[in-house]
Amino acid sequence: MNIVCLDMEGVLVPEIWIAFSEASGIPELRRTTRDEPDYDKLMRFRLDILKEHGLGLREIQATIAKIDPLPGAKAFLDELRMLTQVIILSDTFEQFAKPLMEKLDWPTIFCNTLEVAASGEITGFRMRCEKSKLTTVKALQSIGYDTIAAGDSFNDLGMIRASKAGFLFKSTEQIKRDCPELPAYEEFGELLSAIRAAL
């Protein structure tokens, strides 16, 4: 029994924080998990910048409303879901993911949640569990699933390496150099073929 675990940002949809960085004109918010392996440190850095600029959930959601899935992502996901079960494992937040999941026809997503004040200020965040992607993959394996995983960032490497087949997708040159043992793809057709061969 197989289950495919996919990262969301950079794989199926554009990076939300990069889009918001461009919309807000704050270049520091371009930093993502491709640049910073420590997610807790990255999020605290982001929240400090939002507070400094007086920005909150409403402004970020206004940007997310304009984001569409990457070209070919929905067709890829539709075809993949006809072949096997798929879960999106993301370090994003429910408040960010929902409109994007609607555009992808409501696939299952496991993600985190933001703590938001009545004013709309994002005051904190709650992670589902430590090392959420790797922990989830191991939990799925413990109930009898063989996992196949794909992602683009540092925080995807644990789930990719722990799976029976794992792939980098649209990753950085640095991560590809650091992980030469991991097959790396740029096109959805290539990734679909690789996953199909692993099923």
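the 2nd protein, sequnce then structure:
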Amino acid sequence: MKFKKLGTAAAMAMLLAGAAQAKTDIIVGLQLEPPHLDPTSAAAGAIDSVLYSNVFEGLTRFMSDGSVVPGLAESWDISDDGTVYTFTLREGVTFHDGTTMDAEDVKFTLDRARADDSQNAQKALFADIASVEVLDPRTVRVTLAQPNGSFLFNMAWGDAVIVAPESIEGIKQTPIGTGAFKFDNWVQGDRIELVKNPDYWGEPAKLDAATFKFISDPTAAFAAVMAEDVDVFSGFPAPENLPQFEADPRFQVLVGSTEGETILSTNNKMPPFDNVKVRQALAHAIDRQAIIDGAMFGYGTPIGTHFAPHNPDYVDLTDISAYDPERAKALLAEAGFPDGFTTTLKLPPPSYARRGGEIIAAQLRAVGIQTEITNLEWPQWLEEVFRGKDYGLTIVSHTEPADINIYARPDYYFQYDNPAFQELMVTLNNTTDPTQRSELLQQAQRIIAEDYVNGYLFQLAALSVANAKVQGLWANAPTQATDLTGVSWAE
């Protein structure tokens, strides 16, 4: 009898251990909540942070090392002149509502993105598309007006994920994609819940459920991780606390790179920033390292142009805008502002912006530039700054990959209009030779650095804290995503 009781106890212990080992749900903390859930009609990277790869997929996709691999297109052929891409789609792919994903959906997506009334924040990605033809349900032909060496790269962006006409009306509240997870619930102001897609065409997710919890305050983020209320905090907003997590065996700290060029964005059409000497003065007034140390506690790499330092084509141009406050004062005097001037500094929610903004305001004040700081939530920032262009200065990380081409868009929010740069981007798009592309990219970096278009601050580090047993997380962020498709718990 005694033996039986021991056996039962042992069996119970084994069951409990098995239950502990079989953890299949995860709670991920994020600082920013998406304004809505359609990645194809908003500039907010917070949408991709939740949905990229998890819920929505494109013809191609980014991997954790930044490489581009097949997504919903299993293969493609490119014409000799580089203008015709014939994509073969994967077989048996369905949307989360059960409808088939086929060539008609690809045509709908690309035509919608490039339409005159398109709300796509990266409409320029699709500008070279001349036509999209359905050859059969699994074959689609995309013809470009001119060769574009970045086309497959462009199709991997979150703005290019494939959507369906049947579900497009409700996509902002109920996103329906083809990914390994399905959207389940959104409690606005609190969390978004995803569940495993049992009908996924590819490698199924290891997790059964994922909850994204939105915690904007850095102190609250620290408390939530320390109390293990969240299992992962991606983009951890309190870098000063990372040493505590590194010293605690319950946690792992992931420090990687992002595509996020963090800039003091400048309204190039608003006086006095339409004067290059004023922009040059602005650049020389900024002490990058002081911002990195003060706002990011040492995490971040100084940049002197809009390009990621880990990219092999990067050129270190920080000397062009080296910290020199006396030079800044002299330039202001030459520009007709010996006593300085006052401008606006509108800051979005991330810690790098709010903390960095206070430091930059003090640095600018030291050379005579007074700033009126306004803290904005993301919807306000998108409306006033990004769409309305109603600002003098702002601070933001551009987390889109390899996006120097935004400087060829005069209507973009910092309103830089340089025909020579625009022509250079046309040449780049038409160039496929890697050596020539590298040379062109280096020229582009130098032009915008020497035009002092923006104040180039630092490359944002990817900082995440996670339970030590979570495996498969991306350390680097080649695009703004929290890809959970390969994430699991160690037994």
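DSSP finds 13 helices and 19 strands in the chain. The radius of gyration is 24 Å.
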